[in-house]
C-alpha cells in the first residue's frame, strides 16, 4: 500500500500535471469506488470544475477544484495517469476525468479497493476519514511529548501503535519496520514498556526516515510508480523490510520475518531488543 512518502510523490507529480485543467466529462466504471454520494451525483458535481490544487493529508490525496475537494485514497494499488484522450485505455482504468484540452486523468486500480469522496471545498476536516488522523510526521504539530503520552497509554505492540493513524498520519507497514529497526526496538514490544530513551529514538527515527523517503520519492515495492510513471528510490535504502534471511546490515544476524496482527514484520533479533 502506498504510504505517506509515495502519496506525497504522487501529489507532487499530479500538481505538475493537472493544476489549471478544466473537467468536461467524467466516466466512473466502478461506482463502489465513489463514497458519500451516488456515482451519478459525483459525475455531475465534477463536470465544469477546474483543478486548483493538489494536497495531501496522511495517505489521502486532496484534489481541490473550483467548488469541491476530492479525497482520494489509493489503498493497495491505485494509480493516477495523465493521458491523451486518444491513448488506449488500460483494462484496470476505473475512473476517467476528461479535460477540455484533450487530456485525461485516469485512475487505475487492479484490486478496485481505492475510494473517492467529494466534499465542499476545504471541508475535508469534517469527514470521518480525516478527523481520525494524527499529526503529520514532518510537521511542527508532531510533538514528542504527545507521541510519548500515547505510547505509554497503550499495551499494544509498538508497530501496531505506529500503524495507528491517530498517533501519526501516513506510516504504513514498510516504514514501521524501518523505524523500529533504526530505533533498535522490537516491533512486537508492548508500547507501554518503552523507556524514555527508546521513545526518543522512535520519535527521531520516524521523522528522519519519513523525511528521507519523501526526498527519494518513496519506495517502489511491487507495482508502485508515481503519476509520471517513475519509480521511487527509497527501496534501495531499506534495512529490514523484505530482507528475510539476509544479514542485518549492522551485525550480520539473519533478518527475521513474523506475522504481527496479520502484517508481515521484519526485524533483527540481535539489534532490536
Rg over CA atoms, rounded to whole Å, is 20 Å
The chain-level structural class is alpha+beta
Q: Please, how many helices?
A: 7
Would you give the CATH topology of the largest domain? N-terminal domain of MutM-like DNA repair proteins
The string of secondary-structure elements, in order, is: HEEHEEEEEEEHHHHHEE
CATH level-four homologous superfamily name of the largest domain: MutM-like, N-terminal
Overall 3D shape: elongated
What topology, given as strand order, has the largest sheet?
Answer: 2-9-5-4-3
The counted number of beta strands is: 11
- Beta-strand content: 15-25%
The CATH architecture term of the largest domain is: Alpha-Beta Barrel
**Percent helix:** 25-40%
- Per CATH, the class of the largest domain reads Alpha Beta
Poorly predicted sequence stretches spanning 5 or more consecutive residues:
221-226
Q: N-to-C terminal Cα separation, in Å?
A: 28 Å
Largest sheet: 5 strands, mixed
